[in-house]
Specification:
Largest sheet: 8 strands, mixed
Pfam families: Peptidase_M14 (PF00246)
Strand content: 15-25%
Protein name: M14 family metallopeptidase
InterPro entries: Peptidase_M14
Organism: Shewanella eurypsychrophilus
Helix content: 25-40%
Family: Belongs to the peptidase M14 family.
Oligomer: single chain
Number of strands: 23
Distance between the termini: 67 Å
Shape: globular
Structural class: alpha/beta
Length: 618
Amino acid sequence: MRLTPLSATILLTLSFSSTNTLADNTSDSVDAATPQIASTYINDQILPPAIEWHGKSEALLLSADDPWATPFEQNGLKTSPNYDDTFIWLDKLIAQTDKLKKVSLDKSPQGRDIWMIVASQEGADTSATLAGNNKPSVLVQAGIHSGEIDGKDAGMMLLRDIVLGDKGQLLDNANLLFVPIFSVDGHERSTQYNRVNQRGPVNMGWRTTSKNLNLNRDYAKADALEMQHMLRAINEWQPDLYIDVHVTDGIDYQYDVTFGYNLPQGLSPASYAWLENSYRPAIESALTSQGHIPGPLVFAIDNTDITQGMSLWNPSPRYSNGYGDARHLPTILIENHSLKPYKQRVLGTYVMLEATLKTLGKQATKLKSAIKQDKFRYSPRVTLTWKEVQQKQSWDFKGIEYHMEKSPISGNEIVRWTGVPKLYPNLPVMGDTVPDIRVTRPSAYYIPPQWSEVIERLQIHGIRMTRLEQSTEMKLNQYTLRDPQFKSTDYEGRQRVTIQASLKSVTANLPVGTVRIETHQPLGDLAILLLEPQSPDSLLEWGFFNPIFTRTEYIENYAVEPLAAQMLKADPELQIAFDKALQDSNFAADPKARLRWFYERSPYYDDQYLQYPVLRQK
C-alpha cells in the first residue's frame, strides 16, 4: 500500500519498556510493519511514513519507574533532559562509584561548563593518571550539533550499566571519555520547533553555538571558544579513538545507524585500514545482531533521483573526521537517520558505543601501531585538493520506495517517500579520490611574530614550534599570490578567499620572535594543511591573512609619468618589455594599467603586496 502524508493512517509511535509490555494505541487490524504516519512528535504530520521498529536492543531499556532510569527512559523514550537535569542525574550516578570522574573542559561563552565524564576502572581524574593505566581511550562527544543529541542519552544509559549493571567489564581493557553535551549553549536554545526533519526528541537544541558558529565547520580555524576547549582536551587527554555523534538529514532509507571516517587516500592510511578491516566488521555485526541496520555514510548525489548514485565523502579538516585524518587521530562520524524514531536511534548508538569499547580493548595494540605509522609517515608530497571520479565499487543501496509529485505550492516536482523498503542495486559511487593540487613537504615553515592570531591557533591545535631568539637572514621559499577571489557572503563569521600561488626563492630577514614549525612532527601534516595557502582549510583561505590583500601605498599620475620616462631612458630592456605589453589592445587602451605597469616595476612599489608572509624551508 502506498501512503502519503495526507492519506496515511495516524498512529502513535509505540515504545517498549524493559519488560517488553506493549502500550497498544493502534487498532488490532493494523499491521505494525506497515508504514504509517506517527503522531508522537509535532512534526510527524509533515514527515514521510515511519515503519514501527522493535529490536533486541530494547532489552537495554529500564522501565520508567526504575530508580535508575534515565530521564529519557522516564519520559516515554521520546524526550532528552536539559543541561541541568542531565548533570543532576549524572552527578547522582557518579556519587555511586569511584570509576567515574567529572572534569570541566572549561566554560562556554554563556558561562556553562563543558563537562567530560572520565570512566576507568582506576577512577582516573587527570590525564596523567589515565595514561598511567596503559589502556586505550575513546573520546565520545554528543551534541556538537545540540539538536542531534542521541549520543547523550545513549551514553548516560551505558555509564549507568557500567556502574550498576552488567557492563563493568567494558572498562577492563579500555577507558571512556564522554562529553554528553559539546555545544552547551546551543543545547539550551531548545524548543519542539527545532530540527523540523528529525523524529525527536520532543524538544531539540539549536544547530549552532550562541554566537551562531557551526562547531563541525570549526576544527581547522578554531574560532569558537567551545572548539578551542575541545582541541586542548584532545591534546591533554590524548585519546586513541574519537567518536562524533550526529543525526543526518536528506533522503529516506532503511539504515538507522550510519558511520564513516577518512579514506585510504588521505593522510592516515594505516588508521583507515584498522577502521575498515577491524572496527567496522565488529560494529556492524553488533548492530545487526541487535536489530539495527548499519551502513556507510549516506550522501545522495541527487535527493530526488537515487539512481544518480551516492557520493563518497572525503572531508577536509574543518570537519571532525577530516580533522582526525590530518592529525592522525582515528575519528568516526556517526550519522543516525533523522527519520527513525528517537528510541531506535538512541539504542543503536548505545550498541555502537558498547561494541566500540569491546573492540578497542581487544584491538588496542593494532590501533596504536596504526596511529604511530601515520604520525611518523612524513609523506614527501601532500595532497591539498582532490578531483572527483567514479569509484570502482558500486553500492547495493537499502533505500525506501518513492515517487515524484507536482507541488501546487512550489510548482516543482517533490519527493514522496512511501515508507516501503526497496533495494537499489549497483548504484554508482562518486568520490574525490584523485589528487589535484599537491605540494612537496617543506622541512619547516617560518611565521613572522606579528601574525600572532595565526600562531595562537596553531598552538591551540598542539602543533610544536620554536621561536628565533635573534634576527636571522635565510634563503627560503615564498609564495607570490595572484587573482584573489573573495566570497561575496560571510561564511562561519569569516570572509573566505581563494588564490593562485607560485613559489619563488627569496633571501628573508626574519625578526626576533619569528616562529619555526618543523613538519617532521606528529602534527606536521596538520600544519601543512593549515599553512599551505591553496589548502581548502588553510588559515589563509579562512581569512586570517586578509590584510595582505590591501594596497596601502600609491603613486599619483603626476609623479608616475616623469618616473616612467626616467625608467625608460635608463633601461632599454624596459622599453622593449613595455612595447611588448602594448601589443595587448586592452592594456594599450587602459591608461591606469599602463601607469600601474611602471609603478609595479619601480623601487617605490610595495614589495610585500600579495606576498604570503609564511615562508617555507626546503
